[in-house]
Each structure stands twice: as C-alpha cells, then as structure tokens.
Write a structure and sequence with these properties.
The chain is α/β, with parallel strands linked by helices. It is built from 17 helices and 10 strands. This is Lipase.
Length: about 425
C-alpha cells in the first residue's frame, strides 16, 4: 500500500462521514437541507453568497411560518457554522422532531420544556422557534457550496486549492457582511462547531474590527490549537513526507473518495453494526453512551460532506508545529506568498472581543483540554462564558448529536443568546 493510501486510511477514521450502517427507514436518511427544513414545517430562503475569490456559498435562511413578514425584520440573525467535513444539516439532524411552532422568545423553563425534549433536539429548529433569524452556512467545497464563478470543481484542480486561511479570509467575512446587509442589523450571533470556531478565531485575530459585527461568538468544541489531538489524524500527520505528498497531490476529500471507501471495505463489511459502532465512533469523536444510536445512519449519510485535501493538510501542519499558522507552502512557496520562509502565525492576542463564549469538554479527543487551556490563555480578553461540560465522556460530536445536547449545550447557548 503506497503512502497516499495509508494517509487515506488514517484520515478515513477521522472523517465523520466514514461509518457503517447504510439502511434506514427514517425519513431524515439521506435528506437534503431543503428536505429537512420542509419536513419540520419551516420555510426557507436559499442565498448564494459570492466570495472575493469567486467561490459561491449556499446559505439557508430558516423561516418560521408563524412569524409574519413585518416581525421577521426584528429577529436577531444567528449564523450556524459547521466544522471540518461538515454541512449545514449538522444542526438539523440530531433528533426526529423540532417542528415549527409559533415563535416564543421566552427562556423560562416552562416554555423551553415544550421545545426541548429529546425529540426536538435540533439547534437550528430550536432557535427558529425561539424567535431568532437563523442562517445555516456551508463552507466552500461541500455539496451545497460546490460552485465558483469560473472554476468547475469536477474539472479544475484549482478549485480544490484552498485551505483554512481561505475560509478565514474570504468565506467568513463574506457570510457576515452579506447577512448584515440583508437584515439591516449591525451585528449577528455566530455559533460555530469545531473548524467553525477556528475560522472565527482566525478572522477576529486578523480583522479585530469584526468584533463589532459578531455578538456573541459561541464556540462549541472550540478548535484552534490541535497539538494534543488524540485521533488517528494526529499520527498520520507525523508520518515523514506524508503531508508533503498530500499537499502535492491536492484534490477533494468526499464520501465517494478513497478516504471513506477504504474504511468501509476494511471494517464495515466484516463486523456487525454494534461492533462497528463500538470500534469506529470513539475514533470519530462520539461516545456511544451519549448518542442516540437509532440516529447513527442519519449522522453518517448526510448529503454533501466534502472539502479540500489541503484543508486536512493544514490541520496536519498545525498538529506538527504546535501553533496555528497559515498554510505552509514550503520554504520557497512561503517566500513568494508571505515574504518569509515560514508561514505567519495567527495572533490570538489581537482579538479584542468580549463577546466570546467557549463550551468545551474534558473528554473531547479533538478539542483537547490542554489545547483549549492554551486558547483561553492566549485570547487575553475576558470571556463572556467559560463552560466545561460536566460529563466526563462528552466528546467532539456530542455537541451536535448527543441525545442530551439540549440539557448540556443548547440550554447554555439559549441563555447566552438571551443576553444579546
């Protein structure tokens, strides 16, 4: 097996979309974002946001049909931003319910209990029912943002030559500025998961003026430093020459790629579903004690999971360096790009926002507690909320897919939002 196949195998253990059960009668199985929204009785608008480098992002605006047009303009906009290899549907598929109901912005226990049973544990629908203007973002390259003004993702390799830096420099500000222009608000809320937090930390450090536009920034399973990540990807990143090979090769990581097909062939045709879940999900950032196992096929077959291989390489570079720096193009490539032999480091100390809330867990194998502690230390501004989930087994994707997500995460999120 050559080096690229080795990294593909190791990456496949890291990728959320690599999983096991392919049969389900659940109507959410392989449902698109459009179908998920309509199935809960919501309406939506699909907006196409063009970035300065020509990528076209598909962003969904959830519309509660019980809110009239004049009232909609008064609802605070909230952006939900997925993580690495995620899609906007991540915020809509945790539970089978969450149907649209008359908008109620009350945060008292009686009102919330009607919206937040285990059956209604979807953050996007929850916030829309609590009188927020919910915008569901999709990063460049996934199935909902697989478009460009001049490049064809199926033919042009150049389309896939993007990194985390481009999500920071282009996607994130484009989404923010577009939504603020559409709504007339001066600021919006940003709720990111995993890489969806990383790109906001990067933006706030590079352009501190965006602190006035993002109130609050709620970071679920915050990722910035990744040196202590306890996942197979960490070990793949340390194989000599592997990141160079992957950087040279470039291209796409998707559900149909070698990355995911390898693990399915090696594992999921050999063991039964229970064995596959027990063996694979700890590597993927779940804890099976926390996840609703009947929803596993839904989580694993969501439509549109794809990104660039350079995105993964960028993670690997930062694992090895112990810092969060811009993409390393090699000595000569860095000289051309940055005017120096090594890539510049993102400076958290430049962040001036006091509207940042961190929700993290000691059991998170991707957002390691040591890395989170370093993040908090380096931000150097007071946090709006510093919340550690009081469940030892709480893992990375439990922030999205746990059967107890409302009890431990969304209740805190709604409480924070109510103060802005």
């Amino acid at each position: 097996m050559d080096s690229f196949k080795i990294v593909s195998l190791l990456l496949s253990i890291f990728v959320l979309s690599a999983t096991v059960n392919c049969d389900s009668n659940d109507p959410d199985y392989e449902a698109t974002i459009d179908q998920l929204i309509e199935s809960r009785g919501f309406n939506y608008e699909k907006h196409y946001i063009e970035t300065k480098d020509g990528y076209i992002l598909g962003v969904y605006r959830l519309i509660n049909p019980f809110v009239d047009q004049s009232s909609r303009s008064k609802l605070k906009p909230i952006v939900l931003q997925h993580g690495f290899l995620g899609v906007g549907a991540d915020f809509l598929i945790n539970a089978p319910g969450g149907n649209a109901v008359p908008c109620n912005n009350s945060t008292d226990n009686s009102s919330l209990s009607k919206l937040n049973s285990t059956e209604n544990n979807n953050l996007g629908f929850l916030l829309a029912n609590l009188c927020y203007d919910v915008w569901i973002s999709n990063s460049r390259g996934n199935g909902y943002s697989r478009n460009h003004t001049t490049l064809n993702p199926d033919k042009d390799a150049e389309f896939w030559k993007y990194t985390i830096d481009d999500l920071i420099a282009y996607d994130t500000p484009a989404v923010i500025d577009y939504i603020l222009k559409q709504t007339g608000f001066s600021s919006l809320g940003w709720i990111g998961h995993s890489q969806g937090t990383m790109i906001m930390f990067g933006l706030l450090s590079e352009k501190p003026e965006y602190s006035a536009k993002v109130k609050p920034f709620i970071a679920l399973a915050p990722v910035f430093y990744v040196q202590h990540m306890k996942k197979a990807f960490k070990y793949a990143a340390k194989i000599p020459g592997l990141l160079f090979l992957a950087r040279t090769r470039g291209g796409e990581i998707s559900k149909s790629s070698l990355v995911t097909n390898t693990i399915k062939k090696l594992a999921c045709t050999t063991w039964n579903d229970e064995m596959c879940n027990a063996l694979l999900y700890p590597f993927l950032g779940y804890d099976m004690d926390n996840v609703n196992v009947t929803r596993v096929p839904i989580y694993s077959t969501k439509i549109g999971s794809s990104t660039s291989l350079w995105n993964a390489v960028h993670f690997g570079q930062n694992i090895n360096s112990g810092k969060f720096h811009k993409f390393d193009f090699g000595r000569f490539g860095n000289k051309r790009r940055y005017g120096q032999s090594k890539p510049p480091v993102y400076q958290l100390s430049k962040i001036n926002s006091t509207s940042i809330a961190l929700l993290y867990a000691k059991g998170d194998a991707l957002s390691d507690p040591e890395d989170v502690s370093q993040l908090i230390k380096d931000i150097q501004v007071p946090l709006a909320r510093d919340h550690c989930v009081p469940v030892p087994s709480w893992n990375h994707y439990d922030f999205l897919f746990s059967k107890d997500a409302y009890e431990y995460i969304y209740s805190i999120v709604t409480e924070i939002l109510s103060t802005y």
